[in-house]
Write a structure and sequence with these properties.
The complex is a heterodimer. Chain A is α+β, with helices and mostly antiparallel strands. In chain A, about 30% of the residues lie in helices and about 30% in strands. Chain A has a ten-stranded mixed β-sheet, sandwiched between helices. In chain A, helix 12 crosses helix 13. The longest helix of chain A is centred in the first third of the chain and has 18 residues. Chain A starts with a strand and ends with a strand. In chain B, strand 1 and strand 2 form a beta hairpin. Chain B has one domain. Classes of the chains: A alpha+beta, B alpha+beta. Chains A and B meet through helix 10, strand 16 and strand 18 of A and strand 1, strand 2, strand 3 and strand 4 of B.
Chain lengths: ~450, ~100
């Protein structure tokens, strides 16, 4: 069989952890690079808005230590996609800091390529004025200058191009800011002269770690091998196995369309792909087609702070109250509004969630309620924390003592699991920018640091 | 009549970006997949009905024969993690689909 380009993805998110032995065993054959995705928008907008990570610093360092030691020993590139979670400046800086610590502890040196993915507000405003920005789907509002100015951190997903540049400059470690998840994998394939369609499709499968195997998990490794006209994937851990269906199904995963995938500057058409078993648990994929777009567009992501939250969790067991819960809550809100008549109702919002009834699906819940207890969670969103705390305390005391029609339990309506009952959450963010921006030149800056 | 949950091997929901949720129904038997496909029960109209959405909020509904799967992508009314959202990862929005009778 022809020689392939072998890429290891140790886990689905850097810092999720992975079993060490199968990863180490993979190096019994020649490996061309270790690539791991560190980011996602899945956990919501606060990572980008508040510049925090999805994994702990401790876990990040633990995973990176194992990966860097192997990469440096075998003199193969280590590429981290969407460093630190959201891939903004603070996230990348945290990752650089940890890499420096590890290199110092190993008493070794490396050439680090850092690719920044941050954008200034003015750059986005200029693009908006030039008509180069469009929403990503029909339910996303058009961007306004006001929204851009409210959004302190703005990143864009990079394609393979800046990563390829870093590989050509012989970087040992490449720390990418926000990346299209498959890009760091694709860059390594394209660097070795492989087809971009196969390289990106392989990247799409590898970026989740062993999630494409059975049993699937993001907390274990996967090996991808690129050939001239196909690629293969196989699990590193003998307790997992890839099948043609598991790999084909993973091509589906968390994408809006099953076989047309949009990336920065291209589309992947996977309609004619074949998924076949080439050996025990080795799945071979063919016919992934890369179609370059006429114009280069990149996906912008931004999150803005919009409120502060305080919330309470409590249980309700009294059937007389359960039977009229919504009516009681309406009355509670009315009394709170009366008490704080001097505060504009536009300055705060009170929401109730009924776990056990319809908290997950809300008005989309088709099932009728039957049950003997409800977990109620109520939150107050307000323009500052003090106001959220004050309103929430009043909602809680009013709800606790509310004398509804037919009440027999005159001592209290709520069972609080904790004292204090009110939990100060802090700022609340929302995705305020999720738009495409047309560009004419590569905006991602590569910085090379010798450590 | 058999419920979709009894026929599908995987029936899941997940964010496809912060503004959309994608529902995947996957089968491990070509015959069962073809049966469900031919039954014609899973349509944009049906999804709009069971998810209480307007037809334009159903962004995609595609049968993909190679993977023996059906993918349905719907608009989120509230973006992931924004105020009022109930499911940040969108991972528990598949339940209404399970009871569809085929």
């Amino acid at each position: 069989m022809q020689k392939g380009i072998k890429i290891i993805s140790p886990c689905g998110i850097l810092g999720y952890g992975f079993p060490e032995q199968p990863f180490l065993d993979a190096f019994n054959e020649k490996i061309h690079g270790i690539v791991v995705d560190a980011g996602s928008t899945d956990a919501g907008p606060h990572k980008l808005g508040a510049n925090v990570s999805i994994v702990s610093r401790r876990a990040l360092k633990k995973d990176l230590s194992i990966i860097l030691q192997k990469g440096l020993t075998h003199r193969i590139p280590v590429i981290i996609g969407s460093s630190g979670g959201a891939g903004a400046k603070k996230h990348v800086e945290l990752t650089v800091e940890i890499v420096r610590e590890i290199l110092a502890e190993l008493n070794t040196h490396a050439r680090i390529g850092i690719i920044w993915a941050d954008f200034k507000q003015q750059t986005i405003i200029d693009a908006l004025k030039e008509g180069r920005i469009t929403p990503l789907s029909s339910n996303i509002p058009n961007l306004t200058i006001e929204t851009i100015l409210d959004t302190k951190t703005i990143v864009a997903q990079m394609g393979h191009e800046p990563i390829l540049k870093a590989l050509r400059q012989r970087c040992d470690i490449i720390l990418c800011g926000r990346s299209y998840d498959p890009s760091p994998f694709a860059a390594l394939g394209i660097y070795h002269g492989m087809d971009p369609g196969l390289s990106y499709h392989l990247g799409k499968i590898l970026e989740c770690g062993a999630l494409c195997a059975e049993p699937g998990t993001t907390k274990d490794g996967i090996l991808g091998t690129l050939y001239r006209d196909s690629f293969t994937v196989q699990a590193l851990n003998p307790m997992r196995k890839c099948t043609p269906t598991s790999v084909a199904a993973h091509t589906f995963y968390e994408k809006e369309h099953p076989f047309i995938l949009h990336g920065p500057g291209f589309k992947l058409n996977l309609e004619n792909c074949e998924f076949n078993e080439a050996g025990d648990g080795v799945i071979e994929v063919r016919n992934s087609q890369y179609i370059a777009d006429d114009e280069m567009r990149i996906k912008l992501e931004g999150a803005r702070k919009i409120a502060y939250r305080t919330f309470v969790i409590a249980g309700i067991r009294d059937p007389l109250l359960i039977n009229q819960l919504e009516e009681v809550e309406k009355e509670v809100v009315r009394q709170v509004r009366n008490y704080f008549a001097e505060i504009s109702v536009n300055d705060y919002k009170i929401n109730f969630y009924h776990y056990g009834k319809d908290a997950v699906l809300g008005e989309q819940e088709p099932s009728l309620f039957f049950g003997h207890e409800i977990g109620v969670m109520f939150e107050v969103l307000a323009k500052d924390q003090e106001l959220a705390n004050a309103i929430c305390a009043n909602v809680r005391s009013t709800f606790l003592h509310f004398g509804y029609v037919g009440r027999k339990s005159t001592a209290g309506n709520l069972a609080f699991p904790f004292a204090p009952s009110d939990i100060e959450f802090g700022p609340v963010y929302e995705f305020s920018i999720y738009h495409l921006m047309r560009i004419t030149q590569d905006p991602f800056l590569l910085e090379i640091v010798e450590v | 009549m058999v419920k979709l949950v009894e026929k599908a091997k995987i029936l899941r929901s997940k964010n496809a970006g912060p503004f959309e949720i994608t529902l995947d129904v996957l089968f491990d038997d070509k015959k069962i997949y073809e049966e469900v496909k031919d039954a014609g029960v899973i349509t944009k109209e049906k999804i709009a009905e069971i998810y209480n959405l307007s037809l334009e909020d159903i962004h995609h509904l595609v049968y993909f024969d190679q993977a023996l799967g059906i993918k349905i992508t719907i608009a989120r009314k509230i973006s992931s993690g924004g105020p009022g959202d109930r499911d940040v990862y969108g991972a528990q929005q598949h339940a209404p689909l399970m009871n569809l009778e085929i």
